[in-house]
Design brief:
There is one protein chain. By secondary structure, the protein is mostly helical. The chain contains 29 helices and no strands. The chain is about 70% helix and about 0% strand. It starts with 6 loop residues before the first helix and ends with a helix.
Length: about 600
Amino acid sequence: HRAAGEHRGWLRAVEKAAESAAASGRHQEAITLLERTLATPGIPPQARARLAPLLARNAVTGLRSDQTVEVLEQIVRDADLPPAVRGELRLDLGLMLSNQMGRFAEGWRVLEVAAAELREVRSVLAARAMAALVTPYWPGASLDVHRGWLIKAAAAADDSGDDAMRTAVLANHVGLAMSWADPEAWDLVERLPVQSTDPACARQAARGLCNAADSAVWLGFYRRVDGLLTEGRELATRSGAPYTEHSASGTRLLQEWWTGQWLGLAKRCEDFVADTADMPFLSSDAYVVRGLLAVAQGDWGEARAWLSQRGTFGTENLPVPLGATAAGAVIRLTLARQEVADAAEQARAAWTVVADKGVWPWAAELAPWAVEALARAGDTATAHSMVRDFAQGLGDADAPAARAALTWSRAVLAESEALAEGRPDGLPAAAETYRKAAAAYAELPRPYSQALTTECAARCELAADTEGVAEGGAGESAAAGAGEGRTGPAAPAGPESSPNPATTASAIAELESCAQHFTDLGAVWDATRARALLRTRQPAKKGRPPGRPSHSDQLSPREAEVAQLASSGLTNREIAATLHLSPRTVEQHIAGAMRKTGALSRRDLTHRL
């Protein structure tokens, strides 16, 4: 038709083909056809008014490229479009900017305009725009603002009489209620019409289930996630909602990270990033999880790259809980590098984002690191304020991950203040608080967090039995980072100290267990750090001849540890902080490891070890 100059027939054929593709779930095929058509100069306004909403509906439901957003941004500026069509397009554009592109501020403004435009001409779609503004994950608007939009959206959906729109509002209500641990949240999940035969209702119900699964991960209800994700993904597949399917995959990666399912997790993250290359925001969960793995493995260069989304979009646009998690990891790295002032500034900025939002369960992955940074920087007043606000914000909410993190944060404060004030008698109380946090993480379960907090408890017990423990001051305190960033190991017991042999033996046993758990998980950096602290307290093996053991051409245990960390990208100063060595000693160990293995560079050590 087009080649023959029959433009009307060509556009009718395009519309028919796109509708057919959409009906059979081939959204990307429809998107590609419609994008190419609408980008052609001279399309009559009437045809644009028919084809553009079709493109937008497919784009919101399926997976799309940046070009779709560019096309829609041009079309909504067309003064000849009927107001109802322009409002519908603006709604879909706002959804894409927010949900797929991660451009939250722009998306929020577009959705507000769409809600106003559609209120009189398309009340059903006005309700959809309002429902989108209920979603709490975006930075900026507070929890109370989202609650206000929920009231408006629910009223508009009820007035419309449209079941699919009521379900859309309910799906977003589920996400909002679950985010702050509303006691009614689980009842709302049960109200989702998962048995509906209407594909539009089924798609919204699938989204509601996946919203609930994502919130359950952040709250710490890991055992409930499997059922929600399985049902949500199956329903999304049956109803033709690939975007929902992909978002569920990101939630799964987060669950696997926290529950210790690390075998092959790095590759699963990288594969997911590759599969969603056109929409990096959709793969933001995978970027953060991959960065967290790199931190634990000691590959700090890679960690920073992944946590910053590899420059695909600004990390300030990350959903609030994900941004707080990434910020916590970056603060941890900064502390380990002894850059305490920078860590404190990062902590203040990240905490402001969470506090402005007011969804306090989302502070869980940030709080211990932020409190640590402020305490080590000497700003104990702000550190106390953080813990107080966190506790008050949680209230009596059923949010087990956040409650464990609150206990962890209190332990950090107790340890920091005992060290800063030279009160070694305060460290056993800090150790006990760390153990309470570890027990809470064991219940979830979160094995990595459990091992970190257990290591902290053991460190406090050992330090309490050491003369002169306060000499390092606040700068030696460490949040659940379990000792990274310390200036040196605990000093050996002096003649005037009275260590408790039973307590020391118990703490050493805890450390040994932590080192093994870290090793089993693949947390190379953490395992190395725990073993380094162990060596400062364990007696020499009986029967060993005096002097240093000879390893001839074999790497000594210390050389192997240093080489492992060096090959992963840590600097000499970072390795020294982790292992309680001087940078000069680290340099000597690296030289020895390279000589014995024949490695040509620090990176080459990876293949020689």
